[in-house]
Amino acid sequence: MPYSVKDRKHGEKLILENVCSICKGRLYLKNDGNYNGQMWLECMQGHSSIEKEYQPKSKGEELERSFKNMTQQDRGVAVAMQQKNLPMTGQLTRPEAMEVLKLVYPGVPAKEIERTAILCHDFGLHPLLKEVYIIPFGAGDKKTWATVLGINATRKMMSRFGSFSYVDNTPRVMTPTEQETVFGEVYDDRITAITKLKTKGGLEAQGYGHWFKKDNPYGTDKGNTKANMAFIRSERQAFSRLFPDHMIPDDVQVVDEAYIQVSEVGKVNTATGEIQQEEPTEAEFTEIPQEEPEPTPEEVGELAEKVKTKLDSEPVIEPPDEKAGKIVMADLIAIANETRWDVLRFVRENFKGDTSGTLRDVIGRLTPDQQTQLVQAAQERQELNKK
């Protein structure tokens, strides 16, 4: 069935962002009188299914985004990070992640800091890049904490396990026909979205998400929509089906970081990086305040130059208790997928280890020396694959 478009402008936009999902060929805008003037997309071979490959941001783009979105509080944290020789972007070791999280969230319990640091280390996330948050709920003895991920961070995490594409211009709102086919009915009380994902190897997965029309999402005044929230939920479900063994924990929420702000959980002196307030104030999802002072171009340029110089000159700090080095869990999985390496077989044959559970469970049961051997084997496998 042809992939219909609303008009020429819509079709041309899709052509710039997508390719044929079957042969990867270029798409063309077609118009046939038999379709009553309707327009649709197809490739030279007549296929009419489209996909858009996800492209992770480079380290430079992440650094630029970090400076652009800095609040006054963030700039104070950045100064403190410079004094502690902590990277502003890129892969953090677990101890580095804990140090950064302590600066961003002073007063948060050590257990929550450690839990979030493990997530940052395993998946290459950085708290200062608006990728991961620690949000308190309740007050007093009933206060609990939740780790929250931005949707862009989720995409970045999933890309570590292999390239993937968005198929058929998803995420998008489901058509009535799709709802009837999938759910057996058409919902009138909610926005229903669908996300279709596909790996380079041809694996496909679909996810569905809902948002009730009576509920207004956070950040509505800043452009957030009910459909956007349904998109996020459908995308997360699609990821969980595409990478079932490597999905983020179920208790970690996913939000759109463009519409979330954590209130100042600790005040940091912007000149010295010194923490001025030990106890955290209540943090919540809220609109981005209009009165938040923006950094001047001179401030941004000066800080960017200092950080770039430090990133270029400082050695990589390796954690003393993690002999596996710079390759982390996600890298091992990515290498295994790229080289078709059977990691579980390697563990069984070389370490006589228990290979039950997920790959994360298996590697977690290895001794530090065994983990080092596994990393070395992965590096050798990757080098051989390049030749």
Structural write-up:
- This protein folds into four domains: 1-50, no CATH class; 59-157 and 257-313, no CATH class; 162-243, no CATH class; 329-386.
- It is 40% helix and 15% strand.
- It contains 13 helices and twelve strands.
- The chain has helices at 8-17, 59-68, 72-83, 94-104, 110-123, 151-159, 176-183, 226-242, 297-313, 329-339, 343-351, 359-364, 368-386, and strands at residues 3-5, 19-20, 28-31, 39-42, 50-53, 132-137, 144-150, 164-167, 172-173, 190-199, 204-212, 253-255.
- The strands form three sheets. Strands 2, 5, 8, 9, 10 and 11 form a six-stranded antiparallel β-sheet that branches. A three-stranded antiparallel β-sheet has the order 1-4-3, with helices on one face. It has a three-stranded mixed β-sheet with strand order 6-7-12.
- The longest helix is centred in the last third of the chain and has 19 residues, at 368-386.
- The relative contact order is 0.11.
**What structural category do the secondary elements indicate?**
alpha+beta
N/C terminus separation: 42 Å
Strand % is 5-15%
Number of distinct helices: 13
Give start-end ranges of low-pLDDT stretches.
Answer: 263-294, 314-327
Mean pLDDT equals: 71
Number of strands: 12
Total domain count: 4
